[in-house]
């Protein structure tokens, strides 16, 4: 099973700076998985970053050439998590500084 995780917890930046990031937080018992979808550092591709629960340790990053592919992967990830007993706890959409 693959999980998406965020590597850092960025703060909201001024509208003219940073990049738009969408963040889904899933919970199962006392574990949390965070999936983040946004552009990479040079805005050349989309990245889905997933922070794994502490017992799984680590994070994963997947890259996509277009937004549609990235959203399809996020949707597949969400379906897998829900099928494995995870619940969507929250969704955020904000700008993070570069």
The gyration radius over C-alpha positions equals 13 Å
Alpha-carbon distance between the two ends: 30 Å
Molecular shape: globular
Number of strands: 5
Question: What integer is the average pLDDT?
Answer: 82
Oligomerization category of the chains in this entry? single chain
Sheet of most strands = 5 strands, antiparallel
Number of spatially distinct domains: 1
Helix content: 10-25%
Strand content: 35-45%
Structural class: alpha+beta
Strand order of the largest sheet: 4-3-2-1-5
Runs in which pLDDT lies below 50 for 5 or more consecutive residues are: 1-15
Number of helices, counting only DSSP H or I runs of 4 residues or more: 1
Instruction: List the helices and strands in order.
Output: EEEEHE
Task: Characterise the protein shown here.
This protein has one helix at residues 67-83, and strands at residues 19-28, 31-39, 46-51, 59-64, 87-96. By secondary structure, the chain is of the alpha+beta class. It has one domain (19-96). Strand 3 and strand 4 form a beta hairpin. The longest helix is centred in the C-terminal third of the chain and has 17 residues, at 67-83. Mean pLDDT is 82; it is low at 1-15.
List keywords for this structure.
5-stranded antiparallel beta sheet; 1 helix; 98 residues; 42% strand; globular
Quick gist of this model?
By secondary structure, the chain is α+β, with helices and mostly antiparallel strands. Helix content is 17%, strand content 42%.
């Amino acid at each position: 099973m693959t999980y998406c995780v965020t590597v850092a917890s960025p703060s909201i930046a001024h509208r003219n700076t940073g990049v738009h990031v969408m963040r889904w937080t899933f919970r199962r018992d006392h574990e949390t998985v965070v999936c983040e979808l946004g552009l990479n550092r040079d805005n050349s591709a989309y990245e889905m970053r997933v922070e794994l629960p502490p017992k799984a340790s680590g994070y994963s990053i997947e890259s996509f050439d277009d937004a549609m592919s990235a959203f399809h992967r996020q949707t597949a990830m969400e379906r897998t998590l829900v099928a494995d007993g995870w619940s969507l706890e929250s969704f955020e959409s904000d700008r993070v500084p570069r």
